[in-house]
Design a protein that fits this description.
The complex is a heterodimer of chains A (117) and B (113). Chain A is an all-beta fold. Chain A contains no helices and eleven strands. Chain A has strands at residues 4-7, 10-13, 19-25, 32-38, 45-51, 57-58, 67-73, 76-81, 90-97, 106-108, 112-116. In chain A, a hairpin with a 5-residue loop joins strand 5 (45-51) and strand 6 (57-58). Chain A is globular, with a radius of gyration of 14 Å. By secondary structure, chain B is mainly beta. Chain B is 0% helix and 60% strand. Chain B contains no helices and eleven strands. Chain B has strands at 4-6, 11-14, 19-25, 32-38, 45-51, 54-58, 61-66, 71-76, 85-95, 98-103, 107-112. In chain B, strands 2, 4, 5, 9, 10 and 11 form a six-stranded mixed sheet that branches. A five-stranded antiparallel sheet of chain B has the order 1-3-8-7-6, with no helix packed on it. Chain B is globular, with a radius of gyration of 14 Å. The chains are: A mainly beta (117), B mainly beta (113). The A-B interface holds A 4, 6, 32, 34, 41-44, 46, 49, 51, 57, 91, 93, 95, 97, 104-111, 113 and B 6, 8, 36, 41-46, 49, 88, 96, 98-101, 103-106, 108.
């Protein structure tokens, strides 16, 4: 159980275009989803936290107008990278919080590799 | 000072060796400590978590937390080539009703036959 999927798994786009990444919890409802960015050989850095039906909370230094997050349902959150630039090229990973009363754990998606040319 | 420090390695060991992976953390308020395994170009998967100080064992893996020294460890016994991956330690900070994970840099482990 606790499977999280991401789509697409990789995407190449031209500078100045926008890219949407989907994150889905397949077998559970996730009231909270998280978006991370991981540069090569570096650790995961939390970008933002999204709660179903409310605005996302962004970490310091993350541009909310550039990284648009929508958490429209309990199983789907989307990250849109607007006006992408080569420096936005990275591995984007989402996770979903199971929100159980016993122990709250985050399960991660397989990641989306974004390359901006 | 980073909240969680982890030597990025790489660490290369022969098959069958005992592997020791370590992290230190700075905030004594941290209570939960996790170890994630991440294969290349994949998302992290939770291996184990421990609460406060003590040991936790799961098969060939043992997680250890020493809160007095703010030191967390993961031991892998009888290491296998399939254990080759990046291992990330993490702790969590409760904020605004959710648990924010704070990761170490990750240690790349290679187990060679």
């Amino acid at each position: 159980g606790a499977v999280v999927s991401q789509h697409p798994s990789w995407v190449i786009c031209k500078s100045g275009t926008s890219v949407k990444i989907e994150c889905r919890s397949l077998d559970f409802q996730a009231t909270t989803m998280f978006w991370y960015r991981q540069f090569p050989k570096q650790s995961l850095m939390l970008m933002a936290t999204s709660n179903e039906g409310s605005k996302a909370t962004y970490e310091q230094g993350v541009e909310k107008d550039k990284f648009l997050i929508n958490h429209a349902s309990l199983t789907l959150s989307t990250l849109t990278v607007t006006s992408a630039h080569p420096e936005d090229s990275s591995f984007y990973i989402c996770s979903a919080d199971t929100g159980t009363s016993i122990r709250r754990e985050q399960y991660f998606g397989p990641g989306t590799r974004l390359t901006v040319t | 000072q980073k909240e969680v420090e982890q030597d990025p390695g790489p660490l290369s060991v022969p098959e069958g060796a005992i592997v020791s992976l370590n992290c230190t953390y700075s905030n004594s308020a941290f209570q939960y400590f996790m170890w994630y395994r991440q294969y290349s170009r994949k998302g992290p998967e939770l291996l184990m978590y421990t609460y406060s100080s003590g040991n936790k064992e799961d098969g060939r893996f043992t997680a250890q937390v020493d809160k007095s020294s703010k030191y967390i460890s993961l031991f892998i016994r009888d290491s296998q080539p399939s254990d080759s991956a990046t291992y990330l330690c993490a702790t969590e900070l409760s904020s605004r009703g959710y648990n924010k994970l704070i990761f170490g840099a990750g240690t790349r482990l290679a187990v060679h036959p």
